[in-house]
Amino acid sequence: MLIYFLMFIITGILNSIFYTPYGSNSDAGVILICNTICFLVLSKIFKVNKNTITKLLVIILLLFAILITDKDMFYSNYVQCTPDPLTFPILSCILYFVLLPFTVIFNVLYNLNLFDLSFVFIPAYFIIVIFINRLILSLGKKDFKINNWY
Predict the structure, then answer these.
(1) Pick from 134, 95, 104, 98: which is nearest to 33 by CA?
(2) What is the pLDDT along the chain (150 residues), one digit of tens a residue?
(3) How much is the pTM?
(4) Would you give the end-to-end CA distance of the chain in angstroms?
């Protein structure tokens, strides 16, 4: 939980540095890459068990499923229109703030014109982060073998 709390602080700092009213893709991409690197570094610094990090990222991915279902809420913010009635109205708003360090991925997908494929790219992003995190957490061990990191 300390890592996630520090991610909130880092996200706030990055958003204040890179904030532009009509943010470009490079701004959102930089924030997403910095958040990912900070998450990986903090998990290595605090020496968290790789299974615990995997479980955390899977829980975040499951919570993202609700936001992906209600992606019209995000899309209406970009094109400035009234969204259709949300499937989970209150829960979507709460999850947006709970998942704040990772919601910038919606900005990246919108700016790349891949917003409709968010149900593919968001899980792929988390699977890649899980893979990289497990690899990084296994690097410091003496008995590191490629077959032993899963």
Answers:
(1) 104
(2) 788 888 888 888 887 887 666 556 567 788 888 888 998 898 888 888 888 888 988 998 888 888 787 776 666 666 666 666 666 677 777 887 788 888 888 888 877 888 888 889 989 999 999 999 888 888 766 555 555 555
(3) 0.78
(4) 23
Helical H segments across 2-150, by residue range:
2-18, 25-45, 50-69, 71-79, 89-98, 104-111, 118-139
Q: Running DSSP on this structure, what letter comes out for residue 83?
A: P
Here the tokens at position 137 are 């957490």
Rounded to the nearest 5°, which phi and psi values hold at 83?
-75, 160
Enumerate residues 6+ apart whose C-beta is below 8 A from 73.
83, 86, 92
The alpha carbon torsion through 120, 121, 124, 126 (nearest 10 deg) reads -120
The amino acid that residue 110 corresponds to is: Y
Calculate helix-pair angle for 104-111, 71-79, nearest 10 degrees.
60
